[in-house]
Amino acid sequence: MSGTGHSAEPLIALVAGEASGDNLGTALIAAIRERLPGARFVGVPGPRMRDAGCEALAESDELALMGLTEILRHLPRLLRLRRRLIKEFYARRPAVFVGIDAPEFNLGLARRLKQAGVPTVQYVSPQVWAWRQGRVRGIAESCDRILCLLPFEPDFFTRHGVASRFVGHPLADQFPLHADRSAARAALGYTESDEIVALLPGSRMGEVSRLATPFVGAAQWLAARRRGVKFIVPLTSIATRTHFESVLAPVSAALAIKVQDGQSQLALAAADVVLTASGTATLETLLSQRPMVVAYQLAPLTAFLLRRLGLVKVKHFAQPNLLVGREVVPEFFQEAATPAALGAAVLRWLEEPAALESLQRDFASVHQQLRQGGAGLAADAVLELVPR
User: Fold this and answer.
1) What DSSP line would sit under 151-164, residue for residue?
2) Which domains can be identified in the chain, with CATH numbers?
3) What is the pLDDT of residues 255-284, one digit of tens each?
4) CA 93 to CA 98: how far, in whole Å?
């Protein structure tokens, strides 16, 4: 497969996992097209990437899995999909392969393509600096280049001999430096005086199925102690919304709660405090300069294995704490994420608004650091690997 020449119309293979990967992939396609208008795209896109012109060989939600046990359950199907993609990419001879997030799936695919002479990029660093650091050797064998969204990541890869580049985070370019809170509240039907807590239990079904119950319980706990508090729950899919509403149904009459499709950026801008799953939503909350409480629950077996085998290598898991370099927002892992603990942590933010000033200074500093025109830098890094 190596040695083929590529014109100004290279074929670029993309495989994205879930909603955040779809957003990154859409911005990457636009930035590559600015530089090479004739570029073509094929692979596993999300809906926005497909709308941007990426030909679909499968759907990105097939890769939206989380944790060791969930991946093991779907392993036969994932291996069949990977084999099919390898066959397709061998036949189509892409100029470069970009795996967007979903490292458990993409790194194995990248290794096979790299062995066949295709330049390979992993866009979004696997969090090997956080847990299972031994994986870094396999990454070097799979990828010609890692594109890092977070500024502290390239140092780790450089120490392990893996080519990497900090490209900034595209979300930092998409969020204004100062959110218009009044406009967001008006758009959602709230007043200036309303006290609003946003609940973000995740974008994946696995996350929502684990966090819906403690989040609804935390809302009940808060409502019992904070008269008039209102809740807003933006969810990204019909499946996650249906599940959350089924958990909410028995108590919804006692809560001032609004469940809606999407519009998480508006909900974050409008909120006083955010109770969120760990992941991209924590970064979106940081970029909205909102105080937050972060919960992370894995399948019980996954959590047991991580602890028993000593695979976790960082003090914090919440991105805001990693980016600021100390614990600035409370985080609760596994069985610690109880309704009472989450509710009490949200209540502390509501009762101590003075703590918000220091937090917002830290968050504004991180926002500026991540604002690098990320999609453009990522496009440059990808196109440097396209044979001329």
Assistant:
1) TTHHHHHHHTT--E
2) 11-168+372-383 (3.40.50.2000), 176-370 (3.40.50.2000)
3) 999 999 989 999 999 999 999 998 889 999
4) 13
